[in-house]
Amino acid sequence: MTDYLLRISSLSVNYGATPALQDIDLVVRQGEVACVVGQNGAGKSSLLSAVAGALPNQACQGQVEYQGKSILGRKAEDIARMGISLVPEGRHVFSDMTVKENLLIGTYMRRDRRNVKQEIETVLELFPRLRERLAFPAGLLSGGEQQMLVIGRSVLTNTKFMLIDEPSLGLAPLVIDNVYQALLALRNERGLTLLINEQSSNRVMKYADTIHVLRGGRKRLTTTVQEVGNGETLKAAYFGLTKTDETAAEVM
Length: 252
Ligand SMILES: Nc1ncnc2c1ncn2[C@@H]1O[C@H](COP(=O)(O)OP(=O)(O)OP(=O)(O)O)[C@@H](O)[C@H]1O
Fold this sequence. Notes:
This protein is α/β, with parallel strands linked by helices. Helix content is 36%, strand content 26%. It contains ten helices and ten strands. It has helices at 44-52, 76-81, 99-107, 116-126, 128-132, 143-155, 173-190, 201-207, 232-239, 248-251, and strands at 4-15, 18-29, 33-37, 60-66, 69-70, 84-87, 161-165, 193-198, 210-215, 218-224. The strands form two sheets. A six-stranded mixed sheet has the order 6-7-8-3-9-10, sandwiched between helices. Strands 2-1-4-5 form a four-stranded antiparallel sheet, covered by helices on one side. Adenosine-5'-triphosphate binds at residues 15, 18, 20, 38, 40-46, 199. Adenosine-5'-triphosphate (ATP) binds next to strand 2 and helix 1. Belongs to the ABC transporter superfamily. It comes from Eoetvoesiella caeni.
């Protein structure tokens, strides 16, 4: 019995002739905050999409196991029912619907209808800004508030494992800290496991337990916050600059 919640082995993603990910091995442990960092086009979104079942089957090769069960090739809705939720990049709110209606959408798949009211209350405690704006059209929220809304909606699906694509994108540093504090509270208080994509490796060093670096569709490094030190090895893997990164030469 392992404590791995997710195990990815030899995963490759190809969009027709375009390779996006090659031969990725990666594990995520129950209850950890794991971050995937990399520059534009490194393959971060493709990784989350493959796990969530959001890519065509023919694009993906390899294995993805969640709680010991093979999930690669399953339908996105089946994967969602297993407790995996994807918060895609770009904060997809329903602009003309109110904040409350947006939150309710997150609850539709739940079987435990009795807990919905309490669960919405939990989300509003986590994000007090949303409580103040419950009757507002979601399209009028700030970027940070919209990010809180999509995370809150995802919590309401009864997720156990949240995949979040670039939650910091376009947000001010203080707002980013608020969002991450809420994510850490979700991990600490509800035992959620988080796999988060970010472009900035500096930021994730503050919050992540484990950091995976992608570059050019390949995983270049896995490190922990204890091992990362001054971040030089991480930067080298991210940019592909030193001899210690054995595959750097392939992509430079
Ligand atoms: N639907 C698609 N069709 C063709 N190529 C794609 C598609 N989606 C992504 N790609 C390509 O796959 C590679 C990886 O893209 P991906 O979006 O996974 O990277 P990323 O690290 O998330 O980048 P970003 O930070 O810019 O979102 C890139 O070269 C991209 O152009």
